[in-house]
Each structure stands twice: as C-alpha cells, then as structure tokens.
Amino acid sequence: MSEKGKTTLLREAKNIAHIEGLVKEVRLQEREIKGKNAITGEIEIEVTETEVHPVNFFAYEKTKEGEDNGIFSSLKTVMEEYKTITTHGKEEADAVRVDNGRLEVNDYVDKTGQVRTFPRLSSNFINRVKKDDSFEPKAEFTTEIFIQKISREKDKEGETNRVDLDGVIPVYGGKVVPFSFKVPEDIADYLEDNYEKNQTMEIWGKIVNFKETVSEKTSAGFGQDKIVTKDITKREYLVTGGTDAYDEDSKNAYDKELIKAALAERDLMLENKVEEAKKKKSAKGGAKVGFTSNSGSGSSTNSNTGSSSIDISDDDLPF
User: Fold this and answer.
1) Which of 13, 165, 172, 245 has the most CB atoms less than 10 A away?
2) pLDDT of 307 strictly over 90
3) Element at 166 (helix H, strand E)
C-alpha cells in the first residue's frame, strides 16, 4: 500500500466503446497461434456512409481451464452466418451492436525498426440487433484517464481553438496505454482552466473515423478539364463532456508514481519488441520483418500495416 492507502497494482480504468451499425465486412480467420486454435481479426461496422469503424476480436478455442470458449463459438457464428454490406448489400446486411468495446492501442515495429503506435477498438462480444426504432447507428466512448498533458491543438497554420488532451488509460493486468483526445472549441477553455497534469477524470465523447472521396476539377484553357480525386480522412476521439477531476485522496484517483512505474514497464516491453524484431530480421537474412502487439488485450491484428503476425501472451488476455 502507498501512504494514501491505494493498492500497488493499478486499478483497471472504466473503458467502454459503444459501436452500433451495419456489418460492412468480416475479416476474421481461424488459425493456430502459439500451438492453440484461435480466431483473430476484425469486423468493420458502418455507422454512416462516410464512417466505418474496424473493431478487433480475438479468442482461443479453449479457455485456460480447457473448457470450450463461448467467445470463440460466437466469433465462429459471425464468420459463418453474418451478412455484410460488401457481400449481401446494405438492405440485407446485419445490424449489430458492440456494447463493451475497449479503447486500446496497436504497437508495431516498422521496417526501419521504429515503434509505431496507433489507437484502435477491441471487443470480445458483438450482437445482432433488429433494424427497428431502437437501432441507432453511432460510435461513442466513455473512459477514465490519467492526464499527462493539456495543450492547444496545432495545424499547418498554427494554434487552433481546440485542445489536445493526452493521457494514459490503465488497462488489464496493471498495464497502461497512451491515448490522445480532441476537445472542441466550446469546452476547450474550460478544460484548460480547470484541469491539470497528474489528475484523474472520466470523459466521454464520439469516435470519429471519417473518410470521403472527393473530386476537384481544374477547367482547361484547351482540351479536357483536369479531374483530381482524393480522399479526405479524419480519425479522432472527440470529447463532449467529463466529470470533475477526482479528489487526489480518492481511492479512484491514480497515483502518479504507480503510473510512472507502469509507463517504465511499457517502455521496456517496447524495447524488447524492437530487439525481437532485429533478431527475426537477422535470422531471415535481412528480410522485412513486421509484427503487432496489442497493449491491453489479447487481440493482435494490425489493420494499419496489413501484417498478420501474431504476438500474444496469455497474461494479456482479460478472459
């Protein structure tokens, strides 16, 4: 125990993602991982015409006790029965809801040997729902964070009226993952004036994963007009509200020394991953080597690089 009576193992934060929409595509596969049969991959859920959210899933066929894993069976049903927009069209595609998704990160080592970290969504469960009045396509989050930094957002033209909120989310097993949020103009000043580094708070908001293809035309002085097509994308976690900062003596407020220790463990884990990648590259005679590591859960599919390598520890699995 610390002087304030807090436990020496970080409490797992409230960390919930709610995704509701139509199944656009199922990219799950059954394969052997570390000598055990498993299902891994992602399911794309369309919320609007311009917003699709990939959610990562992972489950071994058997539990640690050797029993049949219900999560595996559920994912098998998804693979065999769920109808997608890609295959069946929007009218026939299944409506689904993910009630207990998680915010986490995908760490991987790129071909230059540098660690890259991207936010992603993960879950154990997905359920089909009826397309009735209760069906409400959306992507939202609620999470507790330990604040590391509050600063004005910057773009190519300088500071904006929004705020960047950077912090860490304590996850399963006493680990932490870094996470960044955007705070809109209407509440940015309040956040800057009333919160500071090393405080704990709960925030909620919208998950944005926007992509739209647009065409721009340049009129020709002679001959044909020039048409340029480009994709406009935006991916962010937009805060719409939050609680007051927890009192520093509260049992729910995170101890900065425990956070510091957990961050040091994370740094060591990433260093080990880099060294492991170097060894694999050397063993393959300098061939390109990439792998994924999910910090905070057992799933490990890298949708950013297309890598299908798996690096999973049973200690990372929250089930």
Assistant:
1) 165
2) no
3) strand 158-170
